Amino acid sequence: MPSIEISYYISSKNLSAKDYNRGIRKHWLIENSLHYVKDVTLKEDASLIRSANAPANFSIARNIVINTFRRANFSNIAQAIRLVGGDIKRLSLLLE
Question: pTM above the 0.85 mark?
Answer without folding.
Answer: no
